[in-house]
Specification:
Helix content: over 70%
Radius of gyration: 21 Å
Structural class: mainly alpha
Number of helices: 16
Amino acid sequence: MIARLAFPLFLGQLGNIAVGFADNIMVGHYSTDALASASFVNNVFNVALLAALGFTMGLTPLVGSLFAKGESGAIGRLVRTGMWASLMFTTLVMCAMVLLYFNLDRLGQPGHLMPIIRPYFLTVLAGMLPLTVFNVLSQWSFALNRTGLPTWIILGSNVLNVAGNYVLIFGHFGAPELGLQGAGYSTLFSRLVCMVAMGAFFCRSRFAAPYRAGFRRAPRVVGQMRTVFATGVPVALQMAFETAAFSGSAVMAGWIDHISLAAIQIVIISGMLGFCIYYSIGNAMAIPVSHAAGRGDHRAMRRIAWSGYHLILSCMVVVCCLFLFAGRSIMGLFTEDPAVLSLAVTLVVPMALYQFGDATQITFANALRGTSRVMPMLYIAFVSYIVIGLPSTYILAFPLGLKLYGIVLSFSISLFVAAGLYFYFFMRATRPEKNIVSQ
């Protein structure tokens, strides 16, 4: 069942990987400065984007639990509340990013990159609200076991994104040559397409009719808004803290030089090959876990989690072999700059090393999310990635003198700590005496 649910998600994530590869390949071949600038902006924005995504993911177990009980009207009301709450949360995140924009020159990045960074930053910022609308409706669809539709929408928008990149980055077919800014415009357009397509399905399809009726008649319920925030905020902060460890590493790479900043972007986007596969399976696994939680079936929750973990570990072995035996070929796709490529290739071993920690923490973070007991996720992420992860990155890179190698090596420390803690709290949450639904 997990594999069946995960396959459409995997296709969507595979599409994201393809677009991420295409974006960085095109930008990298345009110029090393463009690749370095994209590295900084994308990694900084990953914190904001994944926080917004994490908030909407808090809806999945809530909708899944109602779906297990057959309460379609209540699901529609929850989606409306979740939409308002998610837009409010994303707006707050965007305000924080605006403050960051006015302080970009204080982050120690190479000064000659700022004219490239600033306009691209604003373009990525503009895409946050449409992406949030799409994510809310996607989580509704996922929780109803309909993982295919959002996937096909993502794949279609990805094709548009790649085509737009080709035209706008290099100035083909009479378009202006916009470089990195062209990639930003193309991404913004694709996110608008995703929002419109998913919104049209929810507003017009026969399948969505019973949920749409509840959506339209939904009263303003303060208690339900509190429930959405109580479930969404911990997941949002958990994902933000996790991403902050990687984003902070990109900022620190910029303290070394622009070559290191470009090289870490190659490592991070290559490492996303593993992350997106594990995430697809983990996100799919959270759906039947939430259904089991709705029934109060603790044994089924554990069985589902272990089945998902075995599937993720199998994929992890394949990914590690790919990195170890074809790492240079993969990284060579992104740049023709020999200095950037040579540095990136030295990071293959620590990149492969952190895959096991990443696979394990994704499994049990999503399993814990499916139980709706999400508060521990916040504390785990804060300790693992902020208290332990970022200091480890700095110490390995600078006092110990390992520079970029130490930065990538530090990923394993935070990921393994998080993996152990998520496992512990999931097993604790699914003890037979725990009444998960009522918490």
